[in-house]
Specification:
It is built from no helices and 10 strands. The protein is mainly β. Bound molecules: zinc ion.
Length: 130
């Protein structure tokens, strides 16, 4: 396995998701495709991009939506199994998931962007005096 690079997401401004066990940032709320994804263990999130992960070898797996080639996703820091990546879908209707990442919700903690624009710049709008 190659060298692992931690990528910081915290400067991004929006909300993000991190590993529940070690707090490593994993994905931006901006890259969330679906928060109503279901897997056998419950709810999961579908992302277009995740970081700070290592992936396992590709394998054929029978999912709820049919056969897929997937790779397990592990947290690069603590090694927790987080979810999987869709490498290819056998069913044409599932092709949109190829190259996407599924993270199981109960393995994540969610960081909501707080106080966006609440204490930053004063309003820059200006009205003319009548
Ligand atoms: Zn972790």
């Amino acid at each position: 396995m190659g060298r692992v690079f931690l990528v910081e997401l915290e400067s991004a401004g929006g909300g993000y998701y991190r590993c529940r066990l070690c707090d490593t940032p994993l994905a931006l709320a901006d890259h969330l495709i679906s928060d109503s994804f279901n897997c056998r263990k419950g709810k999961a999130y579908l992302f277009s991009k995740v970081v700070n992960i290592s992936v396992g070898p590709p394998e054929e797996r029978s999912m709820l939506s049919g056969m897929h080639t997937v790779e397990d996703i592990l947290c690069c820091l603590c090694g927790q199994l987080l979810g999987w990546k869709y490498v290819s879908a056998h069913d044409k209707s599932q092709k949109y998931k190829e190259g996407k990442f599924v993270l199981e919700r109960w393995r994540l903690s969610e960081v909501i962007a707080e106080h966006l624009n609440s204490d930053g710049h004063p309003g820059s709008s200006d009205g003319e005096n009548p």
